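Z., the sequence and structure:
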Amino acid sequence: MIVNPFYKHIYLASKSPRRKSLLQEWNIDFEVLVDPDHEVDETPRLNEKPLDYVKRMSREKAELVYRYIREQKLDFAPILASDTIVELDGKILQKPQDNSDAFKMLSKLSGRTHHVISAVSIITENSVLTDYSISKVTFNTLSHEQIQDYIQTGEPMDKAGSYAIQGKASTFIKNFEGSYSGIVGLPKAITLSLIGKS
């Protein structure tokens, strides 16, 4: 495992249970730290490309926690942040706003290939590093009943693109190319590389 010997402990700037689970699986010593009073504005900028957006989001999430550490005078450790989106036809699919939004997203993904882009940023005392993975995911053709049944599980509501490859939507996946952990929300190779480079 590539872990910088000078940084054996990191802050995870995310409350995502999926990212926490992955770091635990990789035996990374981490602590979840978020600013309780502020959040990053996740509104895409005008004409912002999906890749530019997701890299900016991961960086801004790390920077928010960096400022919080300084303001609260907490002990410093590298800050790891990540952001994941689904891209289809050049458009960003974020987390659904409600069941109707989730239905529209899943209907669009049905029978088609889309991209899952995950960006990872790490802030140390000396640098800000960002990298990303792009994976291709192809869905089986889904019936309206399959989509509705899946939405009723509640699983889509906090997931980019309205689905979780590691969850009940695994049966929707015809095939994928790229980083499985990146599709889940934190690409392993890139994360470990950034920790090593930091």
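Confidence is low (pLDDT under 50) at residues 1-6. The domain at 10-197 is CATH 3.90.950.10 (Maf protein).

Let me know what you think.
H.
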